[in-house]
Amino acid sequence: EAHGAEHTENVAADSHAATDSHSADAHAAHEKHLEHVLHGLQNKPWAAVYVACIFALLISAGALAFYAIQNAAQAGWSPILFRVMEGVTGYLLPGSIIFFILLVLSGLHMNHLFVWMNEGVADPTHANYDFIIAGKQAYLNVPRWLITAAIILAGWNYYRFYARKHSLAQDKANDNDNYKKIFKASAAFLAFFIVTESIASWDWIMSFDPHWYSTLFGWYVLASFLVSAVTVIALITIYLRANGYLPNVTTSHLHDLAKFMFGLSIFWTYLWFSQFMLQWYSNIPEEVVYFITRIQNYNLPFFGMLVL
Predict the structure, then answer these.
(1) Which of 66, 128, 162, 307 lies at a CB distance of 3.0 to 4.6 Å from 120, suitable for a disulfide?
(2) What is the mean pLDDT of the chain?
(3) What is the pTM assigned to this prediction?
(4) What are the residues whose beta carbons fall under 8 Å from the beta carbon of 177, sequence distance 6 or more?
C-alpha cells in the first residue's frame, strides 16, 4: 500500500510537471505569436512609406536609364523630349536621400521590414536561428547592404548631374563637344546601371523574403519601372502639349513613346509568365511560396496586372 501510494504520488508529480512544461511551451508560443503580430502592425506604416518611396525613386531612375539609352543610341526622334526626361529625373537626388535614410533606419532596427536583420538569425543557439539566412550572411549583412546602396545611388546621381550639366551647356555651344561627352558617359552609365539595378532589386526588394529567389528578378523589376517611367514621360508630355508647351512635339513623338510603352509591357508580361510558369511547374515549395502568397492574399491585383 505504501509503495502504491508513493507510485501514485510520483505519477501525479510527473503529470503536473509535464502540464507545467506544456503550459510554459504554450505560453512561450503565445508570446512569440503576439510579438509577431505586434511587428506586423508596426511594419504597416513603414511598409507603406517604403513602397511609395522606392516606387517614385525607381520611376525617376527608369527615366534616367531611358534618357541614357536615347543618348547612347543617338536616337533622332527623342532629343525634343530630353527636357521632360530630365525633369522626371530631377526627383532622383531628393528621392535617393529619403530612400537612403529609410535604409539606414531599417539597418538600425527601427522597423522589422527585413527578417534577415533579426537578432540571432545566424546564431544556432538562438530561438530566431534560420539555417538558410545564416548561409547568406556573407551577402545579407547591414554594412555591406548600406555601402552597396550608397555606391549605387551615388553612381546614378552622378550621371544625372553630369548629363544634365552638359545638356544645358550644349544649348549655348557652337560645337558638339558636350554632346560627345554625354554620349560616352551614357554608354558607361548603362553598363554600370544594368549591374547595379540587378543588385538593387535583390537588396531592396527580393531580400524581403530571403528564402525565395528568382534569377530573372532583376530583369522583372527593370521591366516594371522602365515601362512606368516611359508612361510618366508620356503623360507629362501630353499634359504640357495640351497647355501650349512643346509646340514641336507631334503625334509621331507620342506614337514612339506609346510603342516603347507597348513593347516594355510585353517584355514585362513575358518575364511575369516565365517566372510563374517555370516555378509553378517545378512545384518546389521554396519557389512556389512566392506565388501562393500572392494568389491567396492578392488574387485580383496579381492576375489583374497580367490581364491589363
Answers:
(1) 128
(2) 88
(3) 0.84
(4) none
